[in-house]
């Protein structure tokens, strides 16, 4: 049987906390017989997304592969992703979010790697008997699991507040089922995470969790959440909520789903119906809802009369 492959992507400094945390988890996977690969995002030359939408336009027309117009090191990332069965992604916390370069990678991931854009393009290419080089890589649709890691120098957890929720941007387009996450804060207190045996042990456990998910015999077991706590949202397991919609309505900003918040016996109770959970952008139905909305928007887009002339007023400012 072909070995399963776990790929780690780090956006930290070379051989610093994030790199080593991911490597510890990868070593655990290797010990369990998995192939491993480690990629440092900052060592690659990856250009920012220009917003041209050629990638997703090609997918929507069924004529493209979802590839980017940039000629840079993305091929390395693409092959690592396509050959993977599991992805561990780690980014330090900068300004209470993941690093800027991490977000550069996220923009290159979606929508070009969205299952609901790639899937129909693959089906069309296969149905038309075309050369596989003219449609997206069929491995795009492979089920994958993943885990997310961050660390922050601050002693207080609230200085890492947006990092893990934001890291879903790397995982959701390809439908990578996140099964574990870890946030190490107070990193400035110790010279290097190697000096924190508890954190290093937790990284071994994270690696074991990936192995358990990859070896699972049922789908339920494969995608089982193995993080330290369930979290407020039952889909993404984060504790973030958007309020302000009136009454007791709340939204999970990661999943984009509606729920309710009530105070029961002095405690906050948040619930999301099954229907809403299935609308999460982390799940297929939620992804279809959005990609259909984009397709529809592109087809029915209202044109602005005399746009070229109207824009003239702004030409030359700051150019
Ligand atoms: C520009 C910048 C902003 C940072 N902002 C935060 C922050 O908001 N919260 C925090 O906990 N640490 C912050 N830090 C500290 C880093 O998270 C910390 O140095 C971390 O250990 C770096 O990870 P690495 O060792 O894997 O590179 C910041 C560091 C830099 C360089």
Description:
This protein has helices at residues 17-31, 54-61, 74-83, 100-109, 115-127, 163-171, 197-215, 219-222, 274-278, 284-300, 307-312, and strands spanning 5-10, 35-40, 86-94, 97-98, 145-152, 177-185, 249-252, 257-264, 267-271. With 319 residues, the protein is of the alpha/beta class. The chain has 2 domains: 5-228, 3-Layer(aba) Sandwich (Rossmann fold); 235-306, no CATH class. Strands 1, 2, 3, 4, 5 and 6 form a 6-stranded mixed β-sheet that branches. A 3-stranded antiparallel β-sheet has the order 7-8-9, with no helix packed on it. A hairpin with a 4-residue loop joins strand 7 (249-252) and strand 8 (257-264). The termini are far apart. The site of flavin mononucleotide (FMN) has 18 residues, from helix 1, strand 3 and strand 5.
């Amino acid at each position: 049987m072909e070995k399963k492959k776990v790929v780690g992507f780090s956006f930290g400094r070379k051989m610093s906390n994030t790199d080593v945390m991911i490597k510890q988890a990868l070593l655990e996977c290797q010990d369990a017989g998995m192939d491993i690969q480690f990629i440092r995002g900052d060592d690659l030359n990856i250009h920012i997304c220009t917003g041209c939408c050629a990638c997703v336009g090609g997918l929507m027309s069924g004529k493209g592969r979802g590839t980017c117009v940039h000629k840079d090191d993305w091929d390395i990332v693409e092959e690592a992703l396509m050959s993977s069965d599991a992805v561990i992604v780690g980014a330090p916390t900068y300004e209470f979010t993941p690093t800027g370069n991490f977000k550069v990678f996220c923009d290159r991931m979606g929508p070009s790697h969205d299952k609901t854009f790639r899937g129909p393009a693959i089906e069309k290419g296969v149905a038309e008997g075309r050369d596989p080089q003219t449609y997206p890589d069929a491995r795009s649709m492979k089920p994958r699991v993943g885990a997310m890691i961050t660390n922050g120098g601050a002693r207080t957890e609230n200085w890492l507040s947006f990092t893990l929720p934001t890291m879903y941007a790397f995982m959701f387009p390809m439908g990578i089922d996140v099964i574990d996450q870890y946030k190490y804060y107070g990193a400035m207190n110790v010279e290097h995470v190697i000096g924190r045996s508890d954190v290093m042990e937790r990284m071994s456990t994270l690696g074991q969790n990936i192995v358990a998910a990859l070896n699972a015999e049922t789908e339920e077991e494969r995608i089982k959440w193995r993080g330290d706590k369930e979290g407020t949202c039952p889909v993404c397991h984060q504790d973030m909520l958007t309020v302000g919609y009136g009454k007791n309505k709340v939204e999970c900003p990661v999943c984009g789903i509606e729920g309710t918040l009530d105070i029961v016996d002095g405690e906050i109770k948040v619930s999301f119906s099954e229907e809403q959970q299935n609308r999460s952008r982390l799940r297929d139905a939620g992804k279809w809802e959005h990609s259909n909305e984009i397709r529809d928007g592109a087809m029915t887009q209202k044109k602005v009369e005399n746009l070229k002339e109207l824009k003239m007023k702004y030409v030359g400012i700051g150019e």
